[in-house]
Amino acid sequence: MKLAIVIPAYNERALLPEAVARLDATPPPKTPEGAACERILVIVDDGSTDGTRELISELGERDDIIAVMHQENAGKGAAIRTGFTAALDAGADILLIQDADLEYDPRDHDRVLEPILDGRADAVIGSRFIGQTHRVLYFWHYAANRFITLFSNILTNLNLSDIECCSKAMTAEVARRIEINEKRFGLEPEIVAKLSQMRLPQDEDEVEGDGAGKGDGRSLRIYEVAVSYAGRTYAEGKKITWRDGISALRCIIKYNFRRLLPF
Question: 213: phi > 0 → left, psi -120 to 50 → alpha, else beta; which?
Fold first, then answer.
């Protein structure tokens, strides 16, 4: 079983070495049969200007790291899209998104991946609000996230608690069917909307749906798993702003009604 950890990075020269060190110090998850997953890191530099690009190029010399470069900053969504393509091309069976900024702990990977590894889930979405340790920070970020999650749940009919959590994992079969269009942080509600709509073939003889993965077949088995969270302040380099909250609402509408709206 090959696991790809997809890491988007933009101007994270100070933190990326520690993020990679934490991954190296965390044993790869094991299958129910006890075999360790073959783990590769797919690190995408999104046009960094602080030395991150050169660092990733050096890390790419390792056998277990695939380094991919964007010539210009295109946004986190674009970096994830590039990382997914590289991971699938490398033969990954499972893909997991891990930010480079130390807000999410690689030691949670076992918990996040367990429902996929034991065959219960096709996709797993982390949650910072259902039982694990998290750093206490901005109330209005929390309130906005709760509203965004509720609005998304109304349209997707999912009962998630944290659609903006960046820790998301899925099988290669699911990843191949997701076309990420958003360039910035709108990818989180976009991914959730598309997971809620996706159908997978019931068996090998069933004809697949359209390019979005819809059509006849079964709905995805989606699990939510608690993850710890060590959020950053803006002084520490946090990049998301109130504009991204407005964009998230736009994306929820767009990707849940994309056949009805002209954009």
Answer: left
Query: Which string of DSSP letters, residue by residue, matches 121-163?
Result: -SEEEEESSSSS-B----HHHHHHHHHHHHHHHHHH----S-T
What are the tens digits of pLDDT across the range 37-71? 999 999 999 999 999 999 999 999 999 999 999 99
Q: Where are the alpha helices (DSSP H) in the chain?
A: 16-25, 52-59, 76-89, 109-117, 139-156, 172-177, 187-197, 242-256
Instruction: Compute CA distances 246 → 3, 76, 251, whole Å.
Output: 33, 17, 9
Distance CA 241, CA 238 (A): 9
Q: Can you tell me the mean pLDDT for 78-94?
A: 97
pTM above 0.90, yes or no: no
**Residue type for position 10:** Y
**One-letter identity of residue 143:** A
Is pLDDT at 256 greater than 70 in this prediction?
yes
